[in-house]
Design goal:
The protein is an all-beta fold. It is 0% helix and 52% strand. The chain contains no helices and 28 strands. Strands 1, 2, 5, 8, 12, 13, 16, 17, 20, 21, 24, 25 and 28 form a 13-stranded parallel β-sheet that branches. Strands 4-7-11-15-19-23-27 form a seven-stranded parallel β-sheet, with no helix packed on it. It is globular.
Length: 207
């Protein structure tokens, strides 16, 4: 599926993915597209849900604003929940995109941007002024490679995000190699200081 120059505005769904739900799609490319005030009463992906254990997903020049699940239970991926194939050739990219003012006050709300498996590459991404309980910025669980960076953020900004629990950037998979290069990480707050820091990594991280 290829989406280009689209606007999804004020959409509410009862399934995963408030605006876009892809569970039988092998490759998804979303380009120059905006998601405003998209919600789901399900538990995954306020605006975008993608799941394919052999698939790939690229978000390029995407704008997200005021998107989140609106159920009262637990929820993952307040803006997007993306799960691709677990290999070096499976792209899980978010490029030149902005996610802002996605707010979920629920105590079980998790992961503003949830990126699961594949090679994660995020150049020039702005994630700002978002709020949820756990991981108000990005959650990454890339494939594990022994010789190369498998999750990279470069020339990106994480600013004024608020976790009513803890953590802004969460690199969750041990054995993976992570990189934060030339990024702004400013004024991110968390209530539970005793748990995890603004940046949490279980693998090797280079800043």
């Amino acid at each position: 599926i290829y989406l280009s120059n689209c606007l999804f505005n004020s959409i509410t769904s009862t399934s995963n993915g408030g605006a876009l739900s892809c569970s039988s799609v092998s490759i998804l490319l979303v380009k120059s597209t905006s998601f405003f005030s998209c919600n789901t009463s399900s538990d995954r992906g306020g605006a975008i849900y993608f799941y394919n254990v052999f698939g790939q997903c690229v978000l390029h020049e995407v704008c997200g604003y005021n998107c989140c699940p609106i159920n009262t239970g637990s929820s993952n991926g307040q803006f997007a929940n993306i799960e691709v194939g677990n290999g070096a050739t499976n792209k899980n990219y978010v490029n030149y995109s902005s996610i802002a003012r996605c707010v979920n006050e629920n105590l079980n709300s998790r992961y503003m941007l949830y990126l699961d498996f594949g090679k994660i590459c995020c150049p020039s991404v702005n994630i700002s002024m978002n709020k949820c309980y756990f991981c108000s910025g990005v959650f990454c669980y890339p494939y594990t490679g022994s010789s190369s960076v498998t999750c990279s953020f470069s020339y990106s900004s994480f600013a004024d995000n608020n976790a009513s629990g803890y953590t802004c950037i969460n690199f969750r998979r041990g054995g993976a190699k992570y990189e934060i290069k030339c990024c702004n990480i400013l004024r991110n707050t968390q209530v539970n200081f005793s748990s995890q820091g603004t940046i949490y990594s279980e693998g090797n991280l280079t800043i």
